[in-house]
Amino acid sequence: MLPEPPPLPALTRAEGELVDAYLAVVDLLGKINPSRSTHTYGALRAAQALVGRAEALREALALMHARGESEVHADTLARALRVLDGERRASRVTLPRT
């Protein structure tokens, strides 16, 4: 049995949407990464979906700004990304080791 992951830090709704949208974009970029892709169709579908997820990311940031959330709390958001397996997910965007 896997150990219980640490709880997510307290986030505003907009911060939660920012983290979710960011990870969705990272996942799609990982699928598009030509050094890791195996089929053009899957990469094409990911590239098409990227537009919508980028818009969601923009909207989350716009909401934060409109609510007066002018600062990004990087440490808190980094903890949330780690709990949501962001390091592994982001590693798919980089070049694989040879």
Helix fraction, binned, reads 55-70%
Mean pLDDT: 93
Q: Approximately how much beta-strand content do the residues carry?
A: under 5%
User: How many distinct beta strands?
Assistant: 0
What Rg, in angstroms, do the CA atoms define? 15 Å
Order of helices and strands: HHHH
Low-confidence stretches: none
Largest β-sheet summary: none
Gap from first CA to last CA: 32 Å
- Please identify the structural class as seen in this structure: mainly alpha
Number of contiguous helices: 4
Described by the principal axes of the CA atoms, the overall outline is globular
List keywords for this structure.
98 residues, mainly alpha
Provide a short characterization of the protein structure:
The protein has 98 residues and is mainly alpha-helical.
Describe the 3D structure.
The structure is a single chain. This protein has about 100 residues and is mainly alpha-helical. It has 4 helices and no strands. The chain starts with 12 loop residues before the first helix and ends in a 7-residue tail after the last helix.
Task: Summarize the topology.
Elements: H1 13-32, H2 40-66, H3 74-83, H4 86-91
